[in-house]
Amino acid sequence: MSKHKKSATALAEEKILAAWEKQSAFQKSLQRRAGAQYFAFNDGPPFANGLPHFGHSLVTAIKDSMLRYKTMRGYHTPRRNGWDCHGLPVEYDVEKAFGVSGKKQIMQLGLEKFNAACCQSIFRYKAEWEDFLARIGRWSDYQNYYATVDTDYTESVWWVLKQIHQKGLLYRGLKSTPYCPRCETPLSNFELNEGYRDNVPDPSVFALFPLKNDPSTKLLAWTTTPWTLPANAALAVNPRADYAYVKLVSGDSTLILAKSRLSELELRKHDYSLSKTVKGKELVGLRYEPLYRLPEGKFTGQQTKNAHQVFADAAVSLEDGTGILHVAPRYGETDLELGLKEKLPLIESVNASGQLIFGPKEALGLFFKEADRHIIADLTRHGRIFAAEMAEHTYPFCWRCETPLMYFATTSWFVEVSKVRDRLIKTAEDINWVPAHIKTGRFGKWLEGARDWAISRNRYWGAPLPIWQNVDDEDDYIIVGSIKELEDLAGTTLAAKEGNAVIDLHRPFIDEITIKKAGKTYKRVEEVLDCWFESGSMPVAQWHYPFENKELFDKTLPADFITEGLDQTRLWFYVQHVIATILFDKPAFKNVIVNGIILAADGQKLSKRLRNYPPTEDVFDEEGADAWRLYLLSSTQATETADYMRFDRSSMRDLRRNVLDTLSNSFRFFKTYADVDGWKPKQLETPTSDNILDQWIQARLAETVKASTKSADNYKIAHAILPVFELIDDLSNWYIRRSRRRFWKSENDKDKNQAYATLHYVLARVSQLLAPWAPFIADELWVDLTKGLKEPKSIHLTDWPKPDRASTKVLEEMRKVRGYIAEGLAQRAAANIKVRQPLSAVSLPKVDESYRDIIAEELNVKRVLWSRAKPVDIDTKITPELRSEGIIREVIRYVQSARKKAGLAVDDRIHLRIESSSKEVNQAVERFKDTVSSETLTTDELKGKGSYSETVDVEGQKAVISLKRAGM
Ligand SMILES: [Zn+2]
Description:
By secondary structure, the protein is an alpha/beta fold. The chain is built from 34 helices and 33 strands. The longest helix is centred in the last third of the chain and has 29 residues, at 649-677.
């Protein structure tokens, strides 16, 4: 429950939510399109083990809006939401709850208990999520959701993996991957990208490697990861680069380093003399003294023999360091490549939990980053350090637990994405990206560099890898593609555990199933699948394809539309695309809106700790969902650059006031007068009118429908909304303002009817143009405007408006006229004359006669003269008559405001008295008696005391206005 009072807007929105619920509006909106063209939307599933937060609002608004729009456009758009259930976010919370971390402790706790707790936590906040989604107006099938935890879902994921295997794209290999030692799992490259931090202080160490046959000559190598130095197996040089032998002035050592990197010595103020220069390839084969002697008995003779010498590698960089690479094959990508190629020992200095296991005794068991300084101290004592400093650089951290990552060579299962790179690029050609630059930019570039995807995780709570391995031969394995297949192979029937409705495929139960075949025993490999493999399989697995729903699957791949945040370009968008391309040679989706990341008003990241954004319920209860949606959706940063958008609550309030309140006021204006006159629409159809203002607003409407439709069809939501904002402004600040008098007139003549019909029609259509984006206020207006008409009971059951045929000439002319008026008003302002003061004449270029009255009234002039001369010229001379009229306009304005303050209705008649000691005021009142009476609905002069009285200032002269309602 929120602490504050709900605004009238919030209460109105809640009423509309209840009405939708009561009339099953969402279900009806689908039913009425049942036979229509299918529009497939795929929901990117969030985790329900965390609460929805402010940052989820934008993507939610886009999803709901686009689907409401497509429904109005005539498509059948079923939508079910999905839930992400597996993976580290869940495990991480459960580890915290049990106070355990790392494999050992989890195993001690018991995998069954651990996974049961994970399973219990996945839907912890599902109700809160559903409340949030519903309150912001997202229509979705909340009962019939898909969840990655479901057995059916997992079975499809297995099937996907088997397809990949059958295409020869699955392999097992030793691979260097970013690795989180706390989570004890490799991370994919795209996960790595989420966790880089700048300006991380780390040691910068120059280590010395004396030559075996000439210990006073030393190779100089540079590293920022001293914890890898005990694992040094070789050095590498660039064969084509020049290397210098330099003699240091202090001491008698000779150092070898790349000639282009001699600046490293100069930087440290070492004077030296150049002895000779050689090509890198001449250094190849030189043997050096190892920093630490190889652990005994761990490596083959060949590995031992190959260790600790110089190799050539064209990839060695001359951009930083010394041009001599320290090679620790277990802890780097190029290192591993070289290590495997040259059959080097894969020395392990740090284990899978990130603890030092080889190196100086005093550092053993320490976390690798803490071991750094002990290693530096130890090597310094042994004269193996040339320089050790601290430097800041960019370093990756685990995106989940913020532990510093390391590159670690582990055995992993891979999808050979690099082999299908060309297909990925080809199938991506058909995808429409909003904003467009992502297609060849962020996404396209990512595809060009697509690398093999490590899909196995040494974790617990996930879809188990369906791979059973021969216990005697790790190269002999079986990939299982369905439950039935597993049952046949294992010769057993999988049954649901007691108390469960479905078979549980999770660890540890699945690990108990063994396969015996031709005298061989197969056990499941321990790993689970990367949860991104699961979400990438979503287009298949959401339907339990190919086991069920073949027709639905065919209709929904590729999906017509998806949308998520910018960060998903290399995550969910990418993994879906990879899987759909490999399996079906198609993209997974046709249209994608990439939304920006919401930042706080000051440009900082949204932070719970800094509280730099309002709680979601505060926004719902104050500004309401419509204002929130419209603000996010219309913000161009959000949909046009997909960069970052700053959330500024005061801008959202401005929008509420300038757009939604303006529309409400226009609606109220209509309703007030229509009620007074008892005017009722007979139907909702394009009105015809002789009045130029009516023709103009209809043309503006038609123009807006066209522009808005075109942009929305192109998934450019901001561009679909902004023209509607302009129309709302024109409707209020031009059409209604200029037409006000037409509604005041007491006779129900033709012109008045045309004004009502036009305003009613335009309000109804504007509501429709807003319906997808601001579904609440749109429906509220619609229901009222169509009461008694044969129209759908909710705006969300209507068809998107088509543009009426309308003249564009009137738009052009009105634009010109408004330009002249603006110029005339500017001249008034320059002469310091209020608009209320009538003037005698203006001359301006000729326009159609029908605009004459508009110009005269707007500029408050007696006469409009057509002149040949181009410029607008207003006569600013004030005669005594004009002055008197100016005074009476001011008096009338005061009376109108007094009427309001006295609480009178617009059609109440009054008795009025105006008293003043000013001769000028009295004369004016006398002279314009009839005008005052008719405009203020005065029937008689007030006798005696009024119900309201006020002293006012008329052009510097005092007057007292007293009035009361006639008939009181
Ligand atoms: Zn981690």
